[in-house]
Design a protein that fits this description.
Strand order of the largest sheet of chain B: 5-4-3-6-7-10
Oligomer: heterodimer
CATH class of the largest domain in chain A: Alpha Beta
Number of helices of chain B: 10
Helix content of chain A: 10-25%
Strand content of chain B: 25-35%
CATH superfamily of the largest domain in chain A: von Willebrand factor, type A domain
Strand order of the largest sheet of chain A: 19-18-20-21-26-25-24-22-23
CATH superfamily of the largest domain in chain B: von Willebrand factor, type A domain
Order of helices and strands of chain B: HHEHEEHEEHHEHEHEEHEH
Strand content of chain A: 25-35%
Number of domains of chain B: 2
CATH topology of the largest domain in chain B: Rossmann fold
Largest interface: A-B, 29 and 39 residues
Shape of chain B: elongated
Shape of chain A: elongated
Number of strands of chain B: 10
Radius of gyration of chain A: 38 Å
Number of domains of chain A: 5
Number of helices of chain A: 12
Largest sheet of chain B: 6 strands, mixed
Chain lengths: 664, 303
């Protein structure tokens, strides 16, 4: 028998018992009775009081009953618990999965009551576990208490509560776990649990810290990194949450891109997986900025065993949409199918307007290059002589570079600002490209025809009378090679991209080749694409929103997918970073300078969409952890309901006695 | 005359049973002392008077009636002696009854019992040609029927008794004071009351005990007072002064009540015994016949 809150009851008793006695003497409503004289009665009362002061108390059954009722209530307040757990006090770590698949609302008919998500069920079981925990209590017959720690995990682990035996604190910590839409990864949680096991916990008491804490995993088993785990099978107890009968289908990949040939046209690709045993006939809806553009019926085959891998695989279907006349917006693909998991039924993508580039040509006089660049579809082409380029305030290029691509024709500068460059001739010094002299009469021996820059570019006839002999760093990408030196190369250094052509084009026959114009077109297009890629709008759950190149301290406001707003500030490096993208949906970043940017966060994870609970976890070394067969039940019985019942019974008896006017 | 008698009897029968009255006819009030009366009555007194019965001699003093000089002794002794005779006188019976509000209590009420008892005693006294005075008291003497003598007063007495009503606060000492101031001569005083006086009965009774009166105290209590049948949480209200006593009836309290009541009665009895008065406790639910014919004869009030 344990008393969890004995002092509360003691304080209550100190107040209520005298109060009851006081009220008892005050509350009586006496019947009036006329007598010839009160003389003798008063004498009798006086005699009674003098001779037997406790007579009234001793013989009054009503007061006795009321006192019993009060004591029953007071004992109930002391929260007595009959503990049936025996053995040594241990330490436990509750690992509660809060990944996307835990948002599944299982079929109601499957033994669970109500429409609860798996996370809610996991939290309930965890709370039962905590309530069954043995606690160090006053007046307890046993000394050892048990300590528990709570960790919630998806792809990251979050410590909700350190080791403690305080049940209220633990239950509060469990209650405060909110669902996320991330992947589940257990290894980080286990590392954290082991690290905390070394600490003495909140109470810093006697528990043996050398004994490893027992891990209690509450999950549906859809964990991506099980095979990487290195835990002993007896160290972890797995409580499987969820039921097999739940059905789900989800969008597992989606991509939207402008057509290469026709930038006005947007191609959208989506794949839908069906994890149900029955084929799925449903529709996929495409909308732009909440404006429905198309609905396409799809039929997804049922899941089944793959004959080669002998593993169950989902039914798959792919859908293509084509949209035109859309300048920009948020594109949404929605699966019009009600299933148990909602967050994988929608995927979003941001459509950016087709970008036209601003190009700066730094050249003394190169009509071939000028005419080739003029033939490209550019927003702006500015031509400046090298002297003027050198005299420009290049630090201003840092944050708001007015040029998307800078073409340097036989000119280098020691301090090139951050940007994207096409450099003909001598490469700059500080990009780890060594030039070891000049070569003559070089012909092309190979080029990467599939690279976007060299798409449709035929270099077979390229001949260079003079070129630099370049030694590229390891991470450089060689696009074309002369017989003795790289001809074209991509180097990324200091946040800049350099497309190096180690020769003066006027020393080659390239201007006379049609491939030169194509090269200019491709090169500016490719580097321009790098511009738009730098700003990544389509994110996966957990990926941060990041905007670079802002003024330090600039204020911004993020509107989350659930409508909540949060203020953030650019750091001293001029970067805004918002990491809390744990839920799928659209995010809006409003920067105080007026610019508003949209981001979308998608789940797009076939592993999380597969919501069938795993009954046996396969971990490394071919070990398996079987799920507990029974759900957790209470190991201690709270006695307060019985005491409350007793109080009620006594109240009834008191009522009866009062009405029967029993006189003792 | 016949008509008058029947009317009287008829009225008196409201209080007393005719058969009972017939038995009362054979009784008379008896004083324990031979007391001085106003008239030559049927009773011998110690006072020397003019009756035929010789009592004593005493020396003649100047101014004595020469008719009572014993000339035979003068002849023999040559000294003048006066013959003294016992004088037969009437008996004054003073019935003092309590008619305060508290007397209306009880089932049957104490007031009815007192009226019946007064009627019975008055009847006996009047029938035997005693001088009867009936006084009712509450907060002082509320009414008096004085100096009745002979059967002719029966009607008046019955009328008076029946019409009397209980009312008012009892003030015993004051009542006794008034009574004594108007009382002359000697005789019997019978006080009938419940004696539940907050200010006490001592001083009042002391006043009555003096002088030449025999005092009989008849203490009348109702059955409800002698053995209360009440339960629960009660607020007792005094019928006279509205005094309140809050009680929780329990076995212990009832025990203490009876103990207190016994002590109170014994105290009154002792008080009377020490002062030569006679005490009788009567239960108002008992029959008046039993009281009169049995108990009052036993204490020699009647014979």
């Amino acid at each position: 028998m344990e008393w969890l809150t004995p002092f509360t009851a003691l304080y209550a008793a100190l107040i209520t018992v005298p109060l009851l006695l006081l009220l008892y003497f005050l509350k009586l409503k006496r019947h009036e009775h006329i007598v010839s004289s009160t003389l003798l009665w008063k004498r009798a009362i006086r005699d009674l009081q003098v001779n037997a002061p406790f007579q009234k108390l001793r013989h009054n059954i009503l007061l006795l009953l009321q006192l019993l009722i009060l004591f029953a209530v007071l004992f109930a307040i002391a929260w007595p618990v009959l503990s049936m757990k025996t053995g040594q006090g241990r330490r436990y770590v509750l690992l509660i999965d809060r990944s996307a698949s835990m948002n599944t609302i299982d079929e109601a008919s499957s033994g669970y009551s109500g429409r609860q998500s798996r996370l809610e069920k996991a939290k309930e079981q965890a709370k039962v576990f905590v309530e069954s925990m043995r606690q160090k209590a006053v007046f307890s017959l046993k000394d050892d208490s048990e300590q528990t720690m709570v960790i919630a995990f998806d792809d990251h682990a979050k410590v909700m509560c350190n080791f403690t035996s305080n049940k209220q604190q633990l239950i509060y910590a469990i209650d405060s776990i909110s669902a996320g839409h991330g992947k589940s990864s257990l290894s980080e949680a286990i590392v954290v649990a082991r690290a905390f096991s070394q600490s003495p916990g909140d109470e810093a008491d006697y528990l043996n810290q050398e004994e490893p804490a027992k891990l209690e995993l509450f999950s549906d088993g859809r964990i991506s990194d099980l095979l990487e785990l290195s835990v002993a099978a007896d160290e972890i107890t797995y409580h499987s949450i969820g039921v097999d009968s739940s059905k789900n289908a989800g969008i597992t990949s989606m991509q939207a891109m402008r057509s290469y040939e026709n930038p006005d046209e947007i191609e959208i690709f989506a794949s839908v997986f069906n994890y149900d045993g029955k084929p799925l006939e449903t529709s996929l809806q495409l909308s732009v900025d909440s404006d429905v553009k198309a609905v396409r019926d799809i039929s997804v085959p049922s899941s089944g065993l793959n004959s080669e891998t002998k593993k169950e695989e989902p039914g798959k279907a792919a859908v293509n949409f084509s949209l035109s006349g859309i300048e920009s917006g948020v594109l949404e693909v929605r699966l019009l199918y009600e299933d148990c998991l909602d967050c994988d039924n929608t995927a979003w993508s941001i459509i950016s307007p087709p970008r036209k580039l601003s190009v700066l040509l730094v050249s003394a006089n190169n009509p071939a290059l000028e005419s080739a660049l003029k033939a490209c579809p550019l927003a702006k082409l500015e031509i400046q002589p090298p002297e003027k380029f050198d005299s420009m305030d290049q630090t201003a290029f840092g944050f708001e570079n007015p040029y998307d691509v800078i073409v340097l024709d036989n000119h280098t500068n020691e301090h090139l600002p951050k940007g994207r460059y096409i450099i003909f001739g001598q490469p700059p010094d500080n990009i780890d490209v060594a030039v070891s002299g000049q070569l003559e009469n070089q012909v092309i021996i190979d080029w990467r025809q599939k690279h976007p820059i060299l798409n449709y570019v035929n270099l077979i006839n390229l001949f260079a009378a003079k070129c630099c002999k370049m030694s590229l760093p390891r991470d450089a990408e060689t696009l074309a090679e002369f017989s003795e030196t790289p001809a074209l190369a991509l180097v990324e250094r200091n946040g800049s991209i350099f497309l190096l052509a180690g020769f003066d084009i006027l020393e080659t026959n390239w201007p006379f080749e049609p491939s030169f114009v194509l090269f200019c077109y491709n090169a500016t297009g490719y580097l321009g694409l790098q511009v738009s890629q730098q700003q990544k709008n389509d994110l996966k759950v957990g990926e941060p929103i990041a905007v670079e190149g802002l003024s330090p301290g600039l204020e911004a406001k993020v509107t989350r997918s659930d409508g909540e707003k949060e203020d953030i500030q650019a750091n001293p490096s001029g970067i805004i970073r918002f990491a809390d993208t744990s839920h799928v949906g659209q995010y809006r970043l409003s920067i105080s300078d007026g610019a508003e940017r949209f981001y979308v966060v998608n789940l797009l994870d076939a592993h999380e969409s597969d919501i069938k609970p795993v009954k046996e976890l396969e971990i490394s070394n071919s070990q398996t952890i079987a799920a507990q067969k029974e759900t957790i039940s209470r190991a201690n019985i709270p006695l307060w309901p019985f005491l409350a019942g007793l109080a009620l019974l006594l109240a009834c008896i008191e009522w009866l006695v009062y009405n029967l006017k029993v006189r003792i | 005359m016949y008509h008058k008698t029947t009317t009287t009897r008829k009225r008196l029968t409201d209080l007393l049973d005719p058969e009972f009255m017939a038995r009362l006819d054979s009784l008379d009030v008896m004083s324990r002392k031979i007391l001085q009366g106003k008239l030559h009555g049927e009773r011998r007194t110690k006072r020397r008077g003019h009756s035929a019965e010789f009592a004593d001699h005493r020396p003649y003093v100047s101014g004595d009636d020469l008719r009572f000089v014993d000339w035979n002794i003068y002849g023999r002794l040559e000294q003048l002696f006066l013959k003294l005779f016992l004088e037969e006188q009437d008996l004054t019976v003073h019935i003092v009854a309590d008619l305060s509000s508290s007397m209306s209590f009880g089932e049957p009420s104490k007031a009815l019992f007192i009226k019946k008892l007064t009627a019975a005693l008055g009847y006996v006294s009047l029938v035997n040609n005693n001088r009867v005075t009936i006084s009712f008291f509450a907060d002082g003497i509320e009414g008096q029927l004085a100096n009745m003598r002979g059967r002719s007063y029966l009607h008046k007495m019955a009328d008076y008794l029946i019409s009397a009503e209980c009312d008012g606060f009892s003030h015993f000492e004051k009542s006794c004071r008034q009574l004594v101031s108007g009382r002359i001569g000697s005789g019997i005083t019978i006080v009938i009351s419940d004696f539940l006086f907050k200010e006490g009965y001592d001083s009042g009774l002391r006043r009555l005990i003096g002088q030449n009166y025999d005092l009989y105290v008849i203490h009348v209590l109702s059955a409800q007072e002698l053995s209360p049948d009440i339960t629960g949480e009660l607020k007792l209200i005094d019928i006279e002064d509205a005094d309140i006593a809050e009680i929780t009836v329990s076995g212990a309290l009832l025990k203490y009540y009876k103990k207190t009541l016994n002590a109170y009665c014994n105290e009154l009895k002792d008080f009377c015994a020490r002062r030569g008065a006679v005490y009788v406790l009567a239960n108002s639910s008992d029959s008046i016949e039993t009281l009169v014919l049995k108990y009052l004869r036993r204490i020699n009030l009647l014979h």
